[in-house]
Amino acid sequence: MTQDTGFIGDISDQDDAASASLIVNRHHQVVDLHPSIDAIMAWPKADLIGHLLEELVHPGDLTALASLLSYSAAETTPQVILIRLQHAIEGWVWASLTETASDTSEQRQFTVTRQPEPETHPQAKEANPELGEDITALVSAQSQVLVFDQALNYLWSSAGFTTAFITEHQDLQDASLSEICNRFLLVENAPDNTAINPTHLSCDAGWQGNVTTTIQGTLKPFHLMSRYKKLAKTQQRVLVLTFSAMTTLQVEANPAPRDVFTSVRDIAHEFRNVFGVISGHTELMHSNPSANQSASINQLSRYSRKAIDLLESLTLLGYLDDDRATHFNPMKHINTLDPLLRLIAGDRLTLHRQADLADFECFGRPANFDHALLATIRTLTQLSAASGPIQIEFSSAYNFLTIIFKLDEVDAQPLQTPQNDAGVIDDLETQFLAQFDALTALGAEYRAIPSVEIEGSKRALIISLPGEMQPIHTHATDVVIERAIKQALLIEDDPGVRDLVELFLGSLGMDVTSCSAEQEVLKLPNYDFDIIVSDVMLASGKTGPDLVRGIRSKRPEIACLFISGYKHGALSNEDLTHPKTDFLAKPFSKSEFGKRVQTLLNL
Q: What fold, for 258-469?
């Protein structure tokens, strides 16, 4: 960027340690400021010259800044806003920004004054009552729930959440999903105990797992589940995060599956029917060998196949007392038990399988998985109306196998009404979940708590089991496939800078995919790029480093060049120490930009 050389006037030495004068040009670029800015932001004057004013302000306060910048200088009443500025040591600090008289339309002068943190955020908005009614109709206020809009900005929190996390609705206003994850230090309970990736939470398939958070210096465990839902009145699509306090459940080595004996009887009865058909057609063929026997042959073939399938199910039942843990493919067990599941539920049962699940593996006790599946189907059959359909959906995302059992119509008569320790009857969700002991025991083994969604007479029972998709190698691992035309992803919200960088990348012979916001990045069909060029601070949603971390969780080998007039606070040590990461300060020349990109591509 080119700096203007003509100033409104000299910055005087009248600024005290708590305030400083600042001048920007018509592009909102800082062109001069008083050295006392060091006492407010801990940055020397030389480091701030040339930055855009928007880059120094917290993303949640950009709306207030835009309002001030659009204010007419002809007005006589000075405008003051309270915002957060980047501090080199403390992170974000509060300051007031007041515009003083300007002598030219080319430049504007402001006074920056350090302020104490306010009790209530000045830009905080009162919760929309109608929106609250719409959301509370979807989720229980007693549950610990956070709701985000489609831009992944905070929308609503339940009373249960604010109580458990010791916070207030106003404290969360204007915060993004990424900021809230950082604020509560959400850590995924994985071997490396890494901070949870907001990209996982916001994916269309949802996410479920165990996390810990720090509340007033104390680590607390929760089971976290993210799901997209649609509000009834406004039809707005929202992201719902549900936190469940972790409880320790005892898992029996052998859960004494009474359902196993019932299942064996079901198979025995069906075998009798199958062999009755086979026997009848065999006698028919013997009694009239000259007749057209194609119909009988088809029936014999069909029922012989059915007998073999039943035998496979019966064989699997014989291992339900096996207490050993091992790697197993859940879908193979589901396919083997399919004939028995249909014996239990009849024609009402429909199974929906994601196409690539044949390569998904879990580690645990297969016998517990099989027993939970059989017991759950049998219970669902008992709870559903006589002709009500039963659907089971199997899908995977982010190393979790998610199973959703759906009932369109529930018969409330068989439901028990358990009471809690205080003698109070539990809510509908707790009552429904109490019927599925085997599924709850399976969840305890995998530290995954089943959840229930209720909509009128419909019920959905959801559980997600950790595992991993086994890689399919299409070529030898030592073969490197060189792409003829390099692919670049550009993340930049400033149209002018975006157009310029597109030209620079194009001159290097690269195909460029440009995104201006988080939503556009998340909608990309894949991240098959050779390099990412990303701004650090974006106008809304996640920062550039947040988006790059999400992409690198799937493609860690991608090179990245961060470009910005300001990098403190947004770039972590992880970002800067990645072997294929570099930072280039704005403004930059075409030759310097090209050198940095080529160096990263050659690593």
A: Heat Shock Protein 90 (3.30.565)
For residue 320, the 8-state DSSP code is T
Which segments within 398-542 are labelled E, that is strand?
400-407, 451-455, 458-466, 468-469, 487-491, 511-515, 531-535
52 secondary structure, DSSP code: B
Query: If 0-12 CB within 10 Å is exposed, 13-18 middle and 19+ buried, where does residue 472 land?
Result: exposed
Phi and psi dihedrals of 404, rounded to 5?
-120, 120
Query: What is the Cα–Cα distance from 153 to 172, expressed in whole angstroms?
Result: 10
How many C-beta neighbours within 10 Å does residue 60 have?
Answer: 21
Residue 498 CA to residue 494 CA, distance in Å, equals 6
Q: Cα(first)–Cα(last) distance of the chain, in Å?
A: 29
Sequence letter at residue 51: H
pLDDT 10s digits, 400-410: 889 999 988 77
Burial class (CB in 10 A: 0-12, 13-18, 19+), 487: middle
Q: What is the pLDDT of residues 422-469, one digit of tens each?
A: 444 446 777 788 888 888 888 888 888 888 888 877 888 999 898 887
**Top-tier CATH class for 487-602:** alpha beta
Distances (CA, A) of 50 to 29, 54, 393, 394, 518: 6, 12, 55, 54, 26
Given the candidates 3.40.50.300, 3.30.450.20, 3.40.630.30, 2.40.50.320, the CATH classification of the domain at 129-245 is 3.30.450.20
19-114 belongs to CATH 3.30.830.10: no
Alpha-carbon gap, residue 42 to 85, rounded angstroms: 11
User: Tokens in use for 417?
Assistant: 């009404």
| pLDDT tens digit sequence for 219-240 | 788 888 888 888 777 778 888 8
Q: Output b/e per residue, 93-120; b: 16+ Cβ within 10 A.
A: bbbbbebeeeeeeebbbbbbbbeeeeee
* Measured CA distances, 88 to 48, 92, 537 (Å): 11, 9, 16
Of 345, 348, 406, 339, give the one whose Cα is nearest residue 375.
345
DSSP state of 55: G
CA gap 404, 196 in Å, rounded: 24
Question: Are 129-245 and 487-602 in the same CATH fold?
Answer: no
Phi and psi (nearest 5°) for 457?
A: -90, 0
**Whether the Cβ atoms of residue 198 and residue 182 lie closer than 8 Å to each other:** no
Helix spans in 318-385 (H)? 330-345, 366-383
Contact 441, 252 (CB under 8 A): yes
Record the tokens describing residue 285, joined without a space.
């063929």
Residue-wise pLDDT for 330-385, tens only, equals 988 888 888 888 888 887 888 998 887 888 888 888 888 988 898 898 888 888 87
**The one-letter amino acid at 262:** T
DSSP 538-558: -SSSS-HHHHHHHHHTT-TT-
User: What's the maximum distance between 2 C-alpha atoms anywhere in the chain?
Assistant: 116
